[in-house]
Amino acid sequence: MQSSSRLNLVGSSPAFQHALKTIHRLAPVDATVLIGGESGTGKELAARALHYLGPRSDQPFIPVNCGALSDTLFESELFGHERGAFTDAKKSSQGLVGEAEGGTLFLDEIDTLTAKAQGALLRFLQDKSYRRVGGKGYSQADVRVLVASNADLGVLVQQQRFRQDLLYRLNVLCVTLPPLRERHGDALELANTFITRLGHQYRTPERKLHPDAIAFIEQYSWPGNVRELENVIHREFLMSDGDELRCEESRRRMAFATRDDVCARSFKDAKARAIAEFERRYVAELLAQAGGKITDAAKLAGKDRSAFGKLVKKYTIEADFGDFALN
Ligand SMILES: Nc1ncnc2c1ncn2[C@@H]1O[C@H](COP(=O)(O)OP(=O)(O)O)[C@@H](O)[C@H]1O
Ligand SMILES: [Mg+2]
Q1: What is the pLDDT tens value at each position of the chain, 327 positions in all?
Q2: Would you say the CB of residue 40 lies under 6 angstroms from ligand 1?
């Protein structure tokens, strides 16, 4: 088994170990790696592992959320700008590529880049030369570029929302993180790790999971992946008394019923529960596909935004306007 405790990458399932093996193999290569996987599967953690296990580990690791960069500011954010290059440019700035010099630049949510930004990135990746906005000469960057995407870039190319030539350039070395539902046994291992970690953080006596909580963690599909599990454990840890976590609150919120519970209920009640469980999973899975954006998820569902938003609120699922995320 790959030893990655130093990097806090937890999981013994074959699916996760396969991804970990790829990470260990690609870390020393010092080339661009495309990291794929649903939201919350650990893409940023994987990017950090690629950096810290590689030759640039004592140099900066600079994560950038591409979704937060506007079309007009993309080049100046990335490459920097000279003083007076545009109205708001009171001072010159070195840009994120300059900050990452010698180290690694991690471009997260690359699927959100606009056409213009995709063009600028492709030019930069050809030979890593770049020019500050408003500047004259070109500089040569010494950075490793890692990129991540929740969305399938191949599908975006078909929909003409992502440049094929950029995908060809990015698609050479890849690692895909499996969704938690395909990582048998890992949810429980992760939950126990989080409980131990929280115990140290809050200096509380040792606590463990009640058998009902274990059954829930093992059977639930975790559409929000490790992030959702981490949030659930965090909330349960803070909200429950005693030395056992029962996860009652989460089981209720997720309308999750064990087999015994179902048999003990009337048909009407059991049906309502099943519908609620379906609704919750459906909404959470669509939101995960839409990168947490209500408007996009509503479109995928063929519902209007406010009706879909009501469902999101009903099940207190993490979204753009989510209010229960603990990290
Ligand atoms: N294998 C793992 N072991 C421990 N923690 C993990 C693992 N994968 C993800 N996490 C945790 O889950 C959360 C989401 O991970 P992140 O890397 O941000 O996911 P993504 O970028 O794919 O949305 C983070 O708090 C991260 O530390
Ligand atoms: Mg991320």
Answers
A1: 444 556 789 999 999 999 999 999 999 998 999 999 999 999 999 999 999 999 999 999 999 999 888 887 889 999 998 888 777 777 888 899 999 999 999 999 999 999 999 999 999 999 999 999 888 889 999 999 999 999 999 999 999 999 999 999 999 999 999 999 999 999 999 999 999 999 999 999 989 999 999 999 998 989 899 999 999 999 999 988 889 999 888 887 776 655 555 556 677 777 887 888 788 888 988 888 888 888 989 999 999 999 998 888 887 776 665 333 332
A2: yes
For residue 77, what are its two tokens?
A: 């954010």
Determine the residue type at 286. L
In which region does residue 160 sit, left (phi positive, over 0), alpha (psi from -120 to 50) or beta (all else)? Answer: left
Q: Is the CB of 179 under 6 A from ligand 1?
A: no
What CA–CA distance (Å, rounded) separates 304 from 75? 35
Could you give all domains of the chain from N- to C-terminal order, each with its CATH number? 5-178 (3.40.50.300), 184-314 (1.10.8.60)
What amino acid is encoded at 157 in this protein? V
37 within ligand 1 shell (Cβ under 6 A): yes
Centroid of ligand 2 to alpha carbon of 270 (angstroms): 36
Which residue lies with its CA nearest to atom 27 of ligand 1?
45
Q: Are 110 and 156 in contact (CB under 8 A)?
A: no
- From 1, 20, 65, 227, the mutation candidate for ligand 1 (largest count of ligand atoms within 8 A of CB) is 227
DSSP β-bridge partners for residue 81: 93, 133
Query: From the CA of 67, which ligand is nearest?
Result: 2
The Cβ of residue 126 has, within 10 Å, a number of other Cβ atoms equal to 8
Q: Is 139 in the pocket of ligand 1 (CB under 6 A)?
A: no
Pocket test for ligand 1, best of 2, 44, 112 (most atoms within 8 A of CB): 44
